[in-house]
């Protein structure tokens, strides 16, 4: 039987809609089911429906690997992240002037989430490095291969005292970690964002806006930091004595940033470099802003 023209047109339209538009992914269905009251942050949407891929049809790559803060807490390497992100807890109030070196740039360039079904078929451990590189189309010995190896060993390193850590290779596994560690499905997710669809907030003086300090409710938080990997991988951890804030910052040029800050009241195990940079006694409560694209999960109540 010959299909009617309208049917053909409809089928074609559906095909186009599926390939160009945003077909609903299993990860989105999972999110809606597990976190019905939590809006999905922009950064996660972008990683589910990436716009940019590299020319050879390979996967997008991370262009600004982020070395997590706890590295410098635990090891001898130099200050790994932007010192301008750090400030003292006592300076977190409206009108406060932040470090003049402060800026916020995008830290990932569209590394996409793979589906949980797909990542579950790819090993994720450093003793399977060559198989991983092969599966992810990464040339052995390349810069990206070194980053893959580094991410794997970071993920395998033991947690620091009081820390619960987990490397999420899919959105679903990140949601599972956050809901189980925070013991609720009533969660909010915050990420540092620059207002008005701007990509970056340039280096300049920023002041905390009037009533620009909002403490996240709940006593615990899980922070998730993007790792350098060919597909989206987040290093998530629950740390002790940490509180999250959303801080509205206004720059001299009017750029406005909703910046997520984490404040640590117990810094007794931190390396001295932090206190030297801030010019305070070891053990002083310290806060830091999270770069763009990093996530903080916290209970709504
Ligand atoms: C991977 O990283 C480990 C630990 O950092 C290192 O010992 C090893 O040589 C690295 N392997 C490759 C192939 O780069």
Which whole number gives the mean pLDDT?
Answer: 82
Bound molecules: 2-acetamido-2-deoxy-beta-D-glucopyranose
Q: Can you tell me the number of structural domains?
A: 1
> How big is the Rg?
21 Å
SS summary, helix count: 9
Structural class: alpha+beta
How does the overall form come out from the CA principal axes? globular
List unreliable stretches of 5+ residues: 1-20, 53-80
Fold and architecture overview:
- The chain has 301 residues and is α+β, with helices and mostly antiparallel strands.
- It has one domain (5-299).
- It has 9 helices and 11 strands.
- It has helices at residues 5-20, 26-34, 42-48, 69-74, 116-119, 129-135, 143-156, 171-182, 272-278; strands at 86-88, 164-168, 187-191, 193-194, 206-215, 222-226, 234-238, 242-251, 256-264, 286-289, 295-299.
- Strands 1, 4, 5, 8, 9 and 10 form a 6-stranded antiparallel β-sheet that branches. The protein has a 5-stranded antiparallel β-sheet with strand order 2-7-6-11-3, with helices on one face.
- The chain is globular.
- Bound molecules: 2-acetamido-2-deoxy-beta-D-glucopyranose.
- 2-acetamido-2-deoxy-beta-D-glucopyranose is lined by residues 129, 146, 149, 153.
Task: Provide a short characterization of the protein structure.
Pfam families: BURP (PF03181). With 301 residues, the protein is α+β, with helices and mostly antiparallel strands. Helix content is 27%, strand content 21%.
